[in-house]
Amino acid sequence: MKRLSWFWVTMCSIIIVIVLVSWQQFGKLSPSAEMLTEQEAQKLVQERYQGEVTLLKLADQQYQIELQKQNKLYVIKLDAKSGKIISFDESNESTAPQPDPPSKSELPEEELKQIVLNAVNGSLVSFEKIDTNQQPSYKAIVNEADKQTTIIVDATSAAFLSTTSSVINQPPKRLTENEAIIIAKSQVQGEVEEIWLDIEGDQTFYLVKIETIDDREATVQIHAITGDVLSVSWDDHTSDKKEDDDDD
After folding, report:
1. What pLDDT, on the 0 to 100 scale, is given for residue 217?
2. What band does 59 get if pLDDT is binned at 50, 70 and 90?
3. I need a surface site. Which of 1, 85, 110, 144 has the fewest CB within 10 A?
4. Distance (Å, whole) CA 137 – CA 130
5. DSSP state of 155
6. pLDDT band at 239 (very low <50, low <70, confident <90, very high)
């Protein structure tokens, strides 16, 4: 009877030990109790990779996570029990919004004018704002000695987008009296008595009266623009002198 009691005591002890071990392995440390929560998985990935989690889902004890970082999208597989990274791949597509390029401010109008005048030595005729392919620009017209230059300048960078020049049609220059006298004396040698400017219709000309050494007078007609000699007319002093002699 005493032997049976010890036998049952021993068997009960063994059963209790087996139950305790089984409870520790399959009860207290069950897989569901060891799994990371979604919040824990998200925090782990964000702290480790310094990005923003945009997608997180659990399947087959693995978290599939999409992480946005520096305009790139990464796909991460995370073991839900151990927290180990199973895979880390860069996605071919990025859903991150591209930052807007910084807006450029336009330069002051006076500064742009000075840039134009530093490049072209002349006087500024006009300076107006235009729109070239939705790009703010200015059109400058500068007159130089014998030409006119048109410049299109970028309002933000001050770069010259185009530069064109054309010859200015100068009004015809009129001869001076001295120039007319030189031409007249090349036709008639003598002393200039008088010079005056005359206009007939649309023609302007000089009349130069010259007295020769033999006491004759000639009037030379010279075109005031071209310098062409239009005519040479003589006063008939010989006839006048003969008439005076006859009267005597």
Report:
1. 93
2. confident
3. 1
4. 5
5. T
6. very low
The phi and psi torsions of 150 (rounded to 5 degrees) equal -110, 125
C-alpha dist (Å) from residue 34 to 23, 24, 40, 60, 83? 15, 13, 12, 14, 10
- Kindly state the tokens that stand for 111: 């500064």
Gap between the Cα atoms of 248 and 236, Å rounded: 20
Query: Do residues 232 and 217 lie in contact, with contact meaning Cβ atoms separated by under 8 Å?
Result: no
- CA-to-CA distance for 66 and 76, rounded, in angstroms? 6
The residue length of the chain stands at: 248
What is the b/e burial string over 147-159, where b = at least 16 CB atoms within 10 angstroms of the residue's CB?
A: ebbbbbbbbeebe
pTM (2 d.p.)? 0.36
Note the pLDDT of residue 151. 92
pLDDT tier at 140, thresholds 50, 70, 90:
very high
pLDDT of residue 214 exceeding 60, the answer is: yes
Cα–Cα–Cα angle for 172, 176, 178, rounded to 5 degrees: 150
Q: Report how far residue 228's alpha carbon sits from residue 243's, in angstroms, rounded to the nearest whole number.
A: 36
Burial of residue 124, with CB atoms counted within 10 A of its CB: 0-12 exposed, 13-18 middle, 19 or more buried: middle
**DSSP state letter for 172:** P
